[in-house]
Structures are given as C-alpha cells and as structure tokens.
Specification:
- The complex is a heterotetramer.
- Chain B is mainly alpha-helical.
- Chain B has one domain: ABC transporter involved in vitamin B12 uptake, BtuC.
- Chain B is about 70% helix and about 5% strand.
- In chain B, the strands form two sheets. Chain B has a two-stranded antiparallel sheet.
- In chain B, helix 1 packs across helix 12, helix 2 packs parallel to helix 7 and helix 3 packs across helix 11.
- By secondary structure, chain C is of the alpha/beta class.
- In chain C, the strands form two sheets. A six-stranded mixed beta sheet of chain C has the order 6-7-8-3-9-10, sandwiched between helices. Chain C has a four-stranded antiparallel beta sheet with strand order 2-1-4-5, covered by helices on one side.
- In chain C, a hairpin with a 2-residue loop joins strand 4 and strand 5.
- In chain D, the strands form two sheets. Chain D has a two-stranded antiparallel sheet with strand order 1-2. In chain D, strands 3-4 form a two-stranded antiparallel ribbon.
- Chain D is globular.
- In chain D, about 45% of the residues are buried.
- Classes of the chains: A alpha/beta, B mainly alpha, C alpha/beta, D mainly alpha.
Chain lengths: ~210, ~350, ~240, ~575
C-alpha cells in the first residue's frame, strides 16, 4: 500500500524486503537494500526487529546516512533507548493527540497518578476512546432479564457503534462510517527522534501534524 | 563397535540423491546468476562474510557447550540455549548498572571484563543447578527421558526469566570503545566489534582446546566421555568431572551471550532459542562430540547464513530471499546428516547406540 | 586382620539376585583367584569390591574398614585398583595419558613419574608406544596398558578381571609372569579367570563360584587336584 | 541405604526449609502469586496465589517430616514445623526487601501488591509475624499428614485437590448448571455470593468431607464391588458393559447442549489437541521416534483446506472446493509430507531425529510466512474466508456443531490407534522402540515400519489441522509455532507415552485446563517445563501409563543406583 502510494506520488521504490520475527542479523537484508542506493528506508515493523534494522543500517556500506523512518509499531519509549545513537534523527509515524487539549491533559494527569510516568506507547488515547465507546454502547443496548441475566445484543451493539456521531474523544471528534471506521484523519502525525529520546525522554516532538 | 550399513541401491537412497542433486543444481545455478547480475560490490560481499564470521564465532562458542555435554553424557542439552540467554541477560544488568554509575565511561576495559565475568558466572551457576537437579538423577535412564527433561528445563528457564524480568526489550548500553570501524584498504573496512568478537571467540576456543588436551581435568573429561565406569575405577570422580564439563560449556555460552549482545544489543527472554538451534546445527554439522568440529561448523554456518540467501536465491528472483535463511540452514543440516551422518569432521567419540 | 575381607555380600542387578552371600578373605601378599563358569558372579564380585556396584547386604572391608560408604572413585584412594574385563583402555587417549589417568588419585608429580618408569620397566613395549593412541594398540599391548594403568595408583590390592581373555597363548604367559612379578614387588592380587589352570598355577589360594555362591575354597594346589574342579574347570576327564 | 542417623538432623531440615523458601521466592517473583491472587478458591478466604504458597510450605513440611529417621513421631513433626517456618522466614525476608527497596527496574513482579499479599495487608512488621506463624502452622499440617496412614492420607489429598478444582472451576460449573433450575438453586450454598469467585467456606468444608469420606468408603469397598462384578455371569457382565457404553454415548451426544457455547469451544480445542496427541502418540509413544516438528503436518492439513476452499480471491488459486472434498486431499498431503520427511531421517536416531524434525517444522512455518510463497498461501497475512462446511444440510459454523465433527475425528483416530496398537504393525513399532538393531535382526522392515509410523501420525495431525481451518475460518502462519509441537509432546508424556487413554488424560490436563484457567496463560509454558522435568524424575511413565512401558521404566530405575555409580 505504502509503496503504491509512494510511487504514485513520484517516488521510486528501490527495494522491498521482508524479515522474520526473531531475526537478529539484518546485515544481508540491508546490504541488498544498499545496492539500490536509497535515500530513505521505511520499515513499518515492530520491536525488536526494528531496533536491529535501525542500528545495523548505520554499519552497512552505502546506508550510513540514509534517512530512517518507522511506523507506530516502533512508537514506544523503549525503542530509542534500545536502538541507541542510530535512532537520532529517525522519523516515526504514530498516533497524534493534541497535547494542549484539556481532556487529554486530564487523562495524562490521571495516568501519572495511577500508573506513573507517561504512556509508553502510541495508541493509549485511541484505546481509551475505543474502550469508552464500547462501554457506552454496552450500557446503551444492554437489557436486563427478569432473573437478572444481562443480555447484550450483538447486532444492537454493532448498530450503535456504526451509528455513532460526534463522539468527543481524546483523539478528536469521532463519527463512525458504515464500515465501522471511526478514526479521524487528524489522529496521525510524524515524530522525529533526537538525542533526548535516546537518553530516555518521551514522547518525541511532533515533526509534522495534520 | 563399528557397524557397517550395507549400501544397496534402493529407492530411498535414490530419492535422496535426486533431492540432493536438485538442491546442488539450485545452489550452483543461483550463485551463477547472482554473480552474473553483479548487483553487489566486492566490498559488500566482504562485509557480509566478515559479519558471518563474527556471527559464526558466536555460534561456535555456543556449539562447544552442546558438544562437550554431548560428548560426556550422550544427551542434547536442549536447555543450553537458555544458559546462553541467562548470561547475556544478567550481563545486561551489570552493564546498565555500571553505565548508570558512570563506571563504564571511566574504566571501559574493566567494565567489559566485569560484564563477561558476571555473564559467565551466571551461566555456570545455572548449568550446575540444571545438572544437579534435572540431569543427574536420570543417569542410566532410557535416552528419551533426559532429552525430554532438557526440553522441559529449556522452557522452564525461558519463562522463568520472562516472569522475573518481564517481556520488554532491553538493550545493552552503547560502549564507545567498541564502536567504529577499522579501515583496511580501499573501501574495505571492518567494524571494531567484529574484530573483538572474532578474536575473543578464537581465544576462548584456543583455551578450550589447550584445556581439554593438556590439563588433568581435560584428560579426565576425555576419559569419562569414553567410559564412565572405567574412569571411576581410575579414581576419577565422574560426577565432579561432569559438573566441570557443564561449567566449561556454560562459561563459553555466557561469554558468547555477551559477545552476541555487543553485536546486537537487544536482550529478551526468548533470545536464546534461535542461536541455540543454530549452534546445535553447527555442532551437528561439524560432528557432534568433536570440539574442533563444533568450531568449524559454527564458522561455516555463520558465513553460509550470511552469504547464502543472497548468493543462492537473489539471482533466481526469489522475493525477500533473506526470510528463507533458516530454511537454507535447516535444509543443509538435513542434507549433511543424510550424506555424511557423522558431520564434517566425523563424530570423534564412538557412536553410542541410541 | 585380613587385608581385604568380604562378608556375606548380596548384590543385585535390578531385580536379579547376582551374588547370594559371598564371603572371602585375602591376606597381604597373596595371589587369590576366583574361578567359575559364565555368570557365576566373578565379575560381579570384583565390581562390588571396587564400588561400581553396591551390595544390598553384607560388607566389604579393607583393613577392617567398611567400604560401603565410599563411592567407586574414592575406593581407589583407599588402595584398591582394578583392571576391568575387556581391558577398558581409553581408546582415544595416548598411552601416556592413559597411565596418567591411572594415577589420577595421586597428587605428587614425582611419584607419578617414578610410577610411570616402573610401568615402563615392567612393559618396555609400552614405552615404545607412549605417544600412540591406545585404540591403535594390539590386544596384548592393551592388556599391558590396562595393567600398568591400574598399578599407577600404587594399589595395595590389584583386582584383575579375565586378563587372558582374547589373547594369544604367548601373551597370556607374559601377562601371568608379570602378575607374579607385581605380586613379588608387594602388591596383593585378586585374579578372576576363566583359564583356571593358569590361574591356579600362580595363585596361592582359590575360590570356586557357582551361580552367585562360593562352593569350594582351598589352596591352589588342593583345588588343582580336586576331582570336581578338574572335571568342571580344568577339562580333565 | 548407607547413612542412617538417629539424631535429629537439623541441617537437613534447614536445607529443606531454604530450598522450599527459594522455590517460594521464585513463585512470587515470576508473578504467579500476584496474578493468581485474583482468583479465589474459597471466596474471600483463600486465593489461588496463597494456595500455591501454602502448598509449597506444606510440601516442604511433608518432606522435612519424611526425611527424619523416625519421621512418624515427634521429631518428624518438629522438623516439619521448623522447615516450613524457615520457608516463611525466607518469604518474609523477600517481602521486607521488596517493601524496603524498589526492585521493579530489574524484577518486574517485585511489586507493592506482592508485599500486600504476603503480609495479609497488615503492613511490614506485623504481617511478617503472621506469615511466619502461618508457615509454621502449615508445616504442622504437613507433619501430621505424614503421620496419617496411607489410606487416610490419600483421601485427604484427594479431598483437598477436589476443593481446589471445584473452587477454580466455580464460574464454569455455575454457568453450565444455570440451565438446570433445581440443581443450581440447590447448590447455591456451595459457591461464593454475588460476584465472588470460588467456593463458599461451608461449600469447601462439605466438598472436602464428602470427597474424603467417599474416597475412604470406596477404597474399603472397591475390592468387594469388583469381586461382585466378576461373580456375575458372563452375559450380564457384557450387558452391563454395553450399558456403560450406551450411557457414555448419550453423554457425548448431549454434552454440547449442557455445556453451552464457551465450554463447548474449550472442549473443541481440547479435542483438536487430543486428535494430534493420538497421532504423535503413534510416532513417539509406539515407535519411539521423537518428532519435534509435528506441527508441520497440522499446518499442511490446515493450509491445504485453506487453499482449496477459500473464496477470498486474493490468492493466485481459488478452487472453491467443498470442505468434504478438500479434507481427504489435506490428509493425503499430510501423509505424503510424513513420508517425504520420513525418508531422509530413516537412518537417524534419537537426538538427531529430534533436531531434524524440529528443523522441518520450522521450515514449513517459515515457508508459510515467506513472501516467496505469499501469492499461493498468503504469507504473513494468512488465508481468510474459509467457508464453514455443510453436513446433511446443517451448516457447521458454531462450536456446538463443530463439536460433532471433532468427536467423530477423535473416535476414528481412537479406533485406528487401538487397532494398530494390537496389530502386527503395532508390535513391530514396539520392537523398534525397544531396540532398533534387534528389531531389524528380527526381520522387521525398518523402512516400512518407520514410514508407516510417520504417515499415520501425520494423517491424524493433518485431520486435526483441517478441522482447525474451518473452526477458525482463517489461518495464519503464527498458529503453527514450535510451541504447538511441544504442547502435544508434553501432553502425551504427561498422559503416558504410548498410552491411548493417557492422551485423553494429558489433553484434559494440558489443553483443557489452561483454556479454563485463563490466569495460567502467562505461565503455561513455565508450568509445562517444570511439569516435564518433574514428571521425568518421579513418574516418567505418565499419569495413565501403558503397561509394558511402565514396567520397563521402573526396571531401568531399579538398575539405576548401580549404573549411576558407573
């Protein structure tokens, strides 16, 4: 998908590779990628393979200065620390929530209070919204029987969620479509990692936002 | 006791020869096509080979542990991969601790030595416990019994570490003295860490060979691996020698764990599994029970894995050939076992009856 | 007090009752032989003395000390060495290394080298082949090596299990001569043999074993002339 | 044995107490206490986390008592109390350390909650004294249990385990009984009130007494009942047996209706494991060929059905076959794969075989995952849209209908296993297991015998995989990890290698129970690992052993003391 859109927009895809979960030596893959002399490597994968790709890319001839970009799978506070200096300057796409939003601030305060620190990975706000929407839905459609059994109609719940409009969540004002997709386009951003994140600060500053 | 298998031409042998020939043709053809396309430069091949050598050195160190224990007990210590993991894991705590305290920055060399000692001690202690609790009561039991115990112990250790230390990825700190590259000639260069890994592994292997060949304990190990009861009649404390064998193998695995983490940095509870299987493959490739074979097998596998997928498959137009590297490694293992069941160097110890 | 005394030992292989109450004594300086057919329990007796097997009942005493609390390798330290059946040399170790293993219980390097000299004097052939791997030696040489190796530990008693097995008559003569010489130098010998004639020829006393029990014990001379023994073990009609 | 001392050996007691303590610390630090604390066995009184600790203390005490030369008297009890108290002291040191220092950077489960649990929520100094007191009390219990005569001890142990089992399964029992108005009302006293989990205190006591007393009574009367049964004439014995079969048949037919959706689902996944277990039992249990790549055939079965029946249209081929047409093809392909794998490993033994089969399993998984084969089998995205099959007009698309397919498969596999075991081939397998060289010398065709073992095993696994494909409707390479092979292996070992009923016992214990006890999920493999190690030491023949195998293993054990010296 990424490759097709990228090509449409005028980019040239020099190589597409795949790695297995559990692999540690990415050198051969990276070397093969290096033969195409790319300007950017995009790897929307997870930890720890992503860390290894980022770190080892700096050691492969021809990729020393290539731009690295990951996706939300690597958007976690452990990533820059575990990757080390190779992560400096790397781009990550990830969920974006306006930090100045009052509701979100309240959420972060509660998090710090109950769990401590800041949420370690990206989708906390989405998860929060989704869970709340689901819970609201259950509350709305649940029917209590005479003998105390609670029935939650599957179709009713689905109808409720698909029909949801103007839900005011942390990730913005959400309205679901007929496929059940409720996310707004504003919820994603691109972040850039710097020395600070490698040394343990989190989350990274937003580089690009919608 | 030597047993001769009568080689008749039968359909099973024929089948295997056909499969073997087809694979060989694939390898040769693929290599030719890849090289002909000339996509990769000499520097890139060189980098891959050196990287394979470093990786292979680590495999070799782990493989020695399998081979030593196999030589003496005739069992695959399946849990050896977890012994490797435990060394790397506890070494991580030493490393980050010293990094945070600023010790690593001031005395990097001493720090590195402490990391190694921590890892090797951890691995050795775990191996002693394993031998004492799980394996020793089973001497003389049918062969499947210790093997299954070892599989059980492997999972137990792996998930105990998961329970104790969590599931997150932890990473060794970056140690400045081992970063960077050493230029050779032209565009050729080697990373410092690879030199260190290869040199350290070579040193430890040399130590092991000298130890087994020339020390009293080493000779006793060889004696015990040949005949336990006769060894006991010589006044050799067989149990003590077995424990020492475990300690030796485990220390090498612990050191391998640290070297591995100097290269890849990431520590997880399941990190032992794949290198463990690879090292075992290496031990079998070289001829299990034979330390020299384990080293050769490790180096061979490391290079083969690093170069193989690209060399054999890229030219054939297989997408993402690198994904298939384990397929190549295991296929090679099966082929070696079929056509040369005793490994490259041959099983040095008399083949025990299964 | 006897050097070695065995008191009513019962040994089992799993559930098989192999020794059914064996008692025997060996005095210092003797050569004593155990004779008997296949499966009579000769080897089992030796394995019990050397600690490879533990008796379920009874005791093995060396100079009056009960050995049952010691493991096989500790019994070597007490002064009992064994030349196992089938020689049991370490095929992949060199001759020298085999001998060194025999002296595993000794700490003193000088003692070890003087013992090795003694073995080489007894068996000059071994000296020629000292760097050779034991697996490449002939049967007779292996027997020499096994015997020499057992002597390396300075044993007060040497247990020998079927030293003549599979050897040419000339070599058997040689081995038996050496046993006598070893004995003259002060080592007590307990010899298990199928070749009863040879064994009784050098022994001072003998025991006859049958299905795990001692059926006869006498001086070697008397045993040789005993009609039952003659018929069963010496092949005299 | 060699050393018997008549004095009180305090050193052994201390040692045992420390070992017990370390085990307890390990249990606590891997997070089991914390995690299992969420589940009550006796509502509001005893959680599963505590049960685990108390059990460790109890076993420590029991062993401490049995180690004393006169374990059945006062010294035994004293030793038990002391050992368990030491256990508790070690635990309190842990609690103190965790309370005092924040160790969570390293030991993720050294949490304040753990301290809370260990100190009965009483805070550090007071709670620790309570902990030590509790340890000593449990030790006393251990010592007393050791004194009891065998018969009573067994009854007590059974009673306690039934309490634990019923307590754990409370939710499931109550849910499945909900349909039977009368019964569920009558049993209300037994369980915790409202949202509480586990038994009520009264319920626990009653269950314990009923089970223990019942067991005692049964044990005293069982010989008589048996004798009575044997006295019956042949004909009525046979009809009684048929009656038994009839009842069993009815139970099997009506089970899904009683169990409801969720429990039937659990039974189904257990059934698939049992089906695989029956197959691996032939390979490992009958023929003694240790196969660690058994999951490969499961994958082949599932993928064949997936490729042949899916209608997603994203793959190169879409055949759109009927499941019943695809099923025999899937099983045949699995068999073919079994033979193809079998040929190269014909000459390999034990350890080599294990590693090569393991490699084979990984090869299949990696190939399934690879981009190379992605066009045909979906790569990491797997195959989706596998349609549910129809049988006589009934659409098999829910657990209750699928249940009958699985039961049918299991009965077929059971029947084939049993017939094979008693056949000429079965005896050849056994000979092969005992000694390959001797078997060959006896004229057994090794090639054919081994290949048939692989092929039959693969067939059952392929069948299981085919059913899995329609059960899930989608298949991913991740469903075919090495862990499945290990799981099946553990199952047949725990049940008893080579024992057909053992497969069912193992399946219920290792596949069924963990499904029900979701809290276990995290610790499943840890527990399996420990179980395998312990089983091999104390009961290598499994819980329901096959007769000859048991004899053989115990003979080996009898020889062991001698061999161990050697």
């Amino acid at each position: 998908m990424f490759a097709e859109v990228f090509a449409e927009l005028g980019g040239e895809v020099t190589a597409r590779e795949a790695v297995n979960v559990g692999d540690t030596d990415m050198k051969p893959v990276l070397t093969s990628i290096a033969t195409g002399a790319p300007e950017i490597i995009y790897f929307p994968i997870f930890e720890p393979e992503g860390n290894l790709i980022a770190a080892q890319s700096r050691e492969v001839a021809g990729l020393e200065t290539v731009i690295l970009m990951g996706a939300d799978g690597l958007f976690a506070d452990t990533f820059p620390e575990a990757t080390g200096s190779a992560a400096v300057g790397m781009y990550l796409s990830g969920p974006y929530v306006d930090v100045n939003d009052a509701d979100y601030k309240a959420f972060l305060d509660k998090w710090a209070d109950q769990i401590g620190g800041v949420p370690p990975s990206g989708f906390h706000a989405h998860a929060f919204d989704a869970t709340n929407m689901l819970l609201n839905g259950i509350e709305a459609v649940a029917v209590v029987d005479a003998d105390g059994t609670v029935h939650i109609g599957r179709q009713a719940l689905r109808d409720y969620l698909y029909g949801l409009k103007d839900y005011n969540g942390l990730t913005g004002n959400l309205t679901c479509n007929e496929n059940g997709d409720c996310a707004t386009g504003e919820a994603l951003g691109v972040f850039k990692l710097s020395e600070a994140e490698v040394n343990g600060s989190w989350p990274p500053p937003v580089f690009w936002q919608p | 006791m030597q047993s001769y298998r009568i080689r008749r031409i039968n359909w099973t042998d024929l089948f295997m020869w056909v499969v073997g020939a087809a694979l060989l043709a694939l390898i040769v053809g693929g290599t030719y096509l890849t090289l002909q396309q000339g996509k990769f430069t000499a520097v890139q091949w060189f980098d891959l080979a050196v990287f394979g050598l470093a990786q292979g050195s680590v495999y070799a160190l782990i493989a020695l542990g399998y081979t030593l224990v196999y030589g003496i007990l005739r069992m695959i210590n399946f849990a050896h991969s977890e012994i490797f993991m435990s060394g790397a894991f506890i070494g991580y705590f030493a490393a980050t601790g010293m990094q945070r305290a600023g010790f690593m920055q001031e005395n990097p060399l001493l720090g590195i030595i402490i990391i190694f000692l921590t890892a090797m001690t951890t691995s050795a202690v775990l191996a002693i416990l394993l031998e004492r609790i799980a394996y020793r009561p089973l001497r003389g039991a049918p062969r499947l019994v210790p093997l299954i115990t070892a599989i059980g112990a492997s999972f137990f250790l792996q998930y105990t570490f998961r329970g104790l230390f969590g599931t997150q990825n932890r990473a060794y700190p970056e140690i400045d003295v081992i970063k960077g590259t050493v230029p050779l000639f032209g565009d050729f260069q080697i990373q410092k860490i690879q030199i260190i890994v290869i040199a350290a592994a070579a040193m430890m292997m040399a130590f092991l060979v000298l130890f087994v060949q020339y020390t009293k304990t080493g000779k006793a190990m060889r004696a015990v691996s040949e005949d336990k009861s006769v060894a006991a009649l010589m006044g050799i404390d067989v149990d003590a020698i077995i424990v020492r064998t475990f300690i030796l193998g485990a220390s090498l695995a612990g050191a391998a764990g640290v070297l591995y983490c100097f290269m890849f940095r990431i520590v997880t509870f399941y990190m032992g599994f794949i290198p463990g299987i690879k090292a075992f493959t290496a031990a079998v490739l070289g001829g299990i029970g034979n330390p020299a074979g384990a080293m050769l097998g490790g180096l061979f596998l490391g290079i083969f894995e690093s170069l193989g997928p690209t060399l054999f498959l890229d030219g054939l137009g297989v997408p993402a050939p690198y994904q298939l590297k384990d397929v190549i490694a295991f296929t090679m293992l099966v082929m070696v076992l079929i056509f040369r069941p005793t490994g490259i160097l041959g099983e040095r110890l008399s083949r025990a009856k299964a | 007090m006897s050097l070695l005394s065995i008191e009513n030992i019962h040994t089992y292989y799993g559930n098989i009752h192999a020794l059914k109450g064996i008692s025997l004594t060996i005095e210092k300086g003797e050569i004593v032989t155990l004779i008997g057919g296949n499966g009579a329990g000769k080897t089992t007796t030796l394995r019990t003395i050397s600690g490879l097997l533990k008796p379920r009942e009874g005791a093995v005493r060396l100079n009056g000390e009960d050995l049952s609390k010691y493991k096989a390798h500790e019994i070597v330290y007490k002064g009992i060495s064994m030349v196992p059946e089938g020689r049991g040399v370490f095929a992949r170790l060199t001759v020298t290394e085999n001998l060194e293993m025999g002296a595993y219980s000794l700490k003193d390097p000088k003692g070890i080298s003087s013992n090795m000299e003694r073995v080489f004097t007894l068996f000059p052939r071994l000296k020629e082949r000292r760097t050779q791997v034991a697996g490449t030696l002939s049967g007779g040489e292996q027997q020499m090596l096994a015997t020499g190796r057992a002597l390396m530990a300075n044993p007060s008693i040497l247990l020998m299990d079927e030293p003549s097995m599979g050897l040419a008559p000339v070599l058997v003569e040689l081995i038996f001569d050496t046993i006598q010489q070893i004995n003259k130098e002060g080592t007590t010998v307990l010899l298990v043999e199928q070749n009863a004639l040879m064994a009784l020829g050098i022994a001072s006393r003998g025991y006859v074993l049958q299905t795990g029990q001692i059926v006869l014990s006498d001086t070697a001379v008397n045993l040789k002339s005993n009609p039952t023994v003659q018929k069963a073990y010496l092949g005299v009609e | 044995m060699s050393t018997t001392q008549n004095t009180f050996d305090w050193r052994k007691t201390l040692q045992l107490g420390l070992i017990g303590g370390l085990v307890g610390v390990l249990i606590a630090l891997v997070g089991m206490v914390d995690e299992f604390d969420k589940r009550d066995i006796v509502a509001g009184t005893l959680s599963m986390g505590w049960t685990l600790l108390l059990l460790t203390a109890l076993i420590t005490g029991y062993f401490a008592a049995s180690m004393m030369p006169k374990g059945r008297g006062l010294p035994g009890i004293v030793s038990a109390v002391v050992a368990s108290a030491i256990f508790a002291v070690v635990m309190s040191v842990l609690a103190w350390l965790v309370d005092r220092f924040d160790l969570r950077q390293v030991l993720v489960n050294a949490s304040p909650n753990l301290v809370k649990i260990l100190t009965f929520e009483q805070g550090v100094p007071n709670g620790l004294f309570m902990l030590i007191g509790a340890g000593a009390a449990v030790g006393l219990l251990g010592g007393v249990i050791h004194i009891l005569p065998d018969r009573i001890r067994k009854a007590v142990a059974l009673g306690l385990s039934m309490v634990a089992l019923l307590g754990l399964l409370q939710e499931i029992i109550q849910v499945s009984l909900a349909g039977f108005e009368g019964v569920s009302k009558a049993l209300e006293w037994m369980f915790g009130k409202g949202t509480e989990k586990g038994l009520s205190v009264a319920g626990a006591i009653v269950v314990f007494i009923v089970v223990a007393a019942g067991n005692l009574l049964w044990n005293t009367n069982a010989p008589k009942v048996n004798a009575q049964f044997n006295k019956l004439p042949q004909k009525s014995r046979r009809s009684l047996r048929w009656l038994g079969y009839g009842i069993l048949f009815l139970v099997i037919i009506y089970l899904p209706a009683v169990l409801g959706l969720y429990l039937t689902e659990v039974v189904n996944s257990t059934g698939l494991f049992i089906l695989m277990g029956l197959g691996l039992n032939i390979v490992v249990g009958f023929a003694g060929l240790l196969d660690l790549g058994y999951v490969a055939f499961y994958a082949i079965g599932a993928y064949t059905v997936g490729v042949l029946t899916n209608f997603s249209g994203e793959l190169t081929w879409h055949f759109g076959w009927n499941f019943w047409l695809a099923l025999p093809v899937a099983v045949s392909l699995a068999v073919l794969a079994g033979v193809v794998l079998g040929v190269p490993v014909l000459n390999m033994r034990g350890d080599y075989l294990a590693i090569v089969t393991l490699g084979f399993g990984e090869i299949i998984r990696i190939l399934a995952l690879s981009d190379f084969l992605k066009p045909s089998i979906g790569g990491s995205q797997g195959i989706v849209n596998i349609p549910p099959p129809q049988f006589l007009g009934v659409l098999i698309n829910n657990p209750q209908t699928l249940y009958y397919v699985i039961v049918a498969g299991a009965i077929l596999a059971l029947f084939i296993s049993q017939r094979l075991r008693d056949s000429r081939l079965g005896r050849s397998w056994k000979a092969l297991r005992e000694d390959e060289d001797v078997a060959q010398a006896m004229g057994i065709n090794l090639v054919a015998t081994k290949l048939l073992a692989f092929a039959t095993g693969a067939a059952f696994s392929g069948l299981s995989g085919s059913i899995l494909a329609v059960k899930l409707g989608t298949i991913y390479p991740h469903s075919f990890a090495l862990l499945i092979s290990i799981n099946v292996l553990a199952l047949i070992i725990v049940g008893g290698m080579g024992s057909i009923p053992g497969v069912f016992v193992g399946g219920l214990l290792l596949a069924g129970m963990p499904e029900l006890l979701r809290e276990f999920a995290e610790y499943r493999l840890l527990i399996y690992g420990a179980l395998l190690v312990v089983m091999m030491q104390v009961r290598p023949e499994g819980f329901w052993p096959e007769a000859t195998h048991k004899r053989e293993l115990h003979e080996a054990e009898a020889v062991k003391p001698a061999e161990a010296e050697a």
